Amino acid sequence: MIKLSMLKGFFVTWVVTGLVLVFFSSSVSGTVVTESNTIPVNLTVDAKPDPVGIQTMSPTFGWKIKTGEKGYRQSAWQLLVASTQAELDKDVAGIWDSGKRLSNEQQFIPYKGAALSSGRKYYWKVRIWDDKGIPSDWSSPAFFITGLFAPHDWDHCDWIALEELDNRLKVVPGVHLKGDNLGEKAIKRAVIPLFRKSFLVTKKIKEAYLFITGLGQYEASLNGGRIGDAFLSPGWTNYEKQVLYNVYDVSGGIKSGENVLGAIVAPGFRYINRERYRKLVRAEGYPMLRAKLSIRYTDGTSNEIRTDSSWQTSASPITFSSIYGGEDYDAQLEQPDWDKPGFSAKLWQNVILVKGPNGLMTSEMDYPMKVMDTFAPQNKTKVTDTSYLYDFGQNASGIIRLGITGNKGDRIRIIPAEVLGDDGMPNQDASGKPYYYEYILRGSGEETWQPRFSYYGFRYALVQVSASAGFQWHNINLTALHTRNSSPAVGTFLCSNPLINQIDTLIRWGIRSNLASVSTDCPHREKLGWLEQTHLIGSSLKYNHDILHLYNKVVDDMIAGQLDNGLVPDIVPEYVPFQGGFRDSPEWGSAAILVPWYTYQWYGDKQIVERAFPMMERYISYLATKAKGDTLAYGLGDWFDLGPKNPGVSQLTPLGVTATAMYYYDASLLAEMATLLGDAKKVQQYRQLAERIKTAFNNQYFNEKTGVYASGSQTSYAMPLFTGMVPQAQRKRVQKNLIESIYRGNKALTAGDIGYRYLLRALEDAGASQLIYEMNNRDDVPGYGYQIKHGATALTESWAALKYVSNNHMMLGHFMEWLYSGLGGIKQLPGDAGFKKILIEPQEVDGINWVNVSYESINGNIQVRWKRENGRISYTVSIPPNTCAKVIIPVKTANAATALKKNMATVPTAGKVTIDGKKAMFDLGSGTYTF
Fold first, then answer.
1. Half-sphere exposure of residue 879: CA atoms within 13 angstroms, side-chain side
2. 773 and 916 inside one domain
């Protein structure tokens, strides 16, 4: 094969008033080479590397591209899928050889091979061709393991338990919220059971896969070693609609002779009793387990170990476990080696078979929660002879690891909290109390323990000791373990302004602490999947974490949670139905439409729109039943805006503004999605609906004489501006009114949870990033800087960091989106999906001298760096292979524009320069450029 190599060609510099442009590029020579420097990397199946347990028989494939060529464009690809690594190494594709396919697509390539089997491992690789027809090398091999595709794959796998909840003691969610008038219901502590199964292996293992779930949460072990490192598996769902299970490759853990499969199961969200703090009371059933271990031997035979009546069970040392109340552990009750071969289980009882929930068994494809960070105490303060206060320095979701030496029966209580009260002691008033951990020592050397099935949001911990004489405090060692969804980090931001960097960190900890198997509002008091934040802070999330799988699950949860009348409740899974706007608010329920669309735009997978479209149509039909004259006026409105009263339901903006704006936006996006799906009839239907809503909204809320919307609040202007309801002829006027109103208000923010994201987007669209910066680069009024000034280390629920509400929330973190899209300028061109056509348009602001921002998109890494020095600005931009970018930068003079046009004309990978006012626009192929 031959290709043209790229030699370092020229270095062009020109200086214009207020701007320096330095461009590095390459000239083309005719040197012949015999090998490619391009290769597919970061291979994925269903957008995960080497996934275990894919649930579909039609998976999709993807890759990124590593190359030294600027302007690289893929023109074709070829996939090989084999049943063994040896076959793949020989380029034998017994499962699928796609042949050479002419396409520049590199993500969500549908599988078209032979039918896949449940519970099998497949190997694959890919090669690609560039636009000159030159092939790459084959990628390194990758693999995927299938889950159990059909319900019958679970035949003869029973649900097993230690005890069964009497039907008369079950609590129906929605009938009782906090446990009033429940009589004897939900008083008993659920026993946290251990399960074990001994089995014999006499043949050589080829492969072994464990398919397992435990409700509410479980941990599994094999021969005494923990399987995996997930926390709180499986993910939370509506168990009557969907039960998640996990898949593990345990081929290396099974040995010849006796083996033992073990599990411990806690109630999670299925049984929440009335002891200690609880946001809700729920009694669906006691802990239960379902599993299948599939073993294939090298001689071609196989065996399956299923949960059935032959399993044994016993109570664990966990004497109390509540997702809301904490966890207790009595080490005196431990049974050493209970999950290892050779253990005598004579005192154990046989399991009972119980009826499980009705939900469809589905493999969990989201990244599991894990321990993702650790914090040592920054301070330790003596309170009394029997208690000490620890400060870990960071408010975060998680648990506490205890290391201790003491006597048998000594009791340690750990009370976590995110804030201190006026008395200097941990205060749980706003985070849910009482919540604590308790550990009773076994009294044999150094002991280490951490909770398994409950977590909290905290910075501080009060440790109380009830111990025998002679106990020494230096024998206690505490470590805070931060737990969250383990989705990979994909974004970085840093700038010259320390406060802006602190704000970025503040928001990051609010986000991190609320990424669970749902997008929670807070990591302590509620732990519920409130939906408004999934779309409002969604872009901030996506710039920082790979949340495609989390948002796929959110969509599944919304589909499962939709009511018969079409309503999508404010929270999913809906473990407790609230009342009024706390169950039905359009700003929350509209996540049913916005989340699938935003997710498609961000990652480029059309399947999420196809899957969710029926739900979307049912939801907007529901909204239509609530509308009066094509407008809506109910719900929570601009939640937690800054009005004269304590924060809550909207104070400054009429409910009809936010509700109707969402209704209009929903209809507009449904028309967009109908276009994507090729349904012309529905395109027309939803465009007409959107137009009716727009007309009715403007008739009711827009004053044509003054150009003011509704109350003139920040949200009243911002939402119609961003959603497109402002008549085009009035747009500049409304933007001007919004900006002037902010200046009249001393540049203080007042918009709340719903409006602030739209305010930032409306100002950015108006080119007013300088104002955004000035509104947020301060600590004298409620806002991010104010929170930091008052001691917050994670984003708080209220702008004013009020101690009587949560001090670890992510619902106000919209500013992070602007750090990437505004300051960094990383966006997509209109109509694009998956960052194939990138828009780079940084908005520099006075007060920041440099910005470094990067985003690892699904197609590769995008970087923007700009620096102001001596009145000049330089830019460095990196565009990933097989994508292109439109770059928009300021030019302050005609001479600068002329110089830019002349020099860009010599760059092979650059398009024509267009000057629009004081902006220069030009196209770039992949590569790194400095100008």
1. 30
2. no
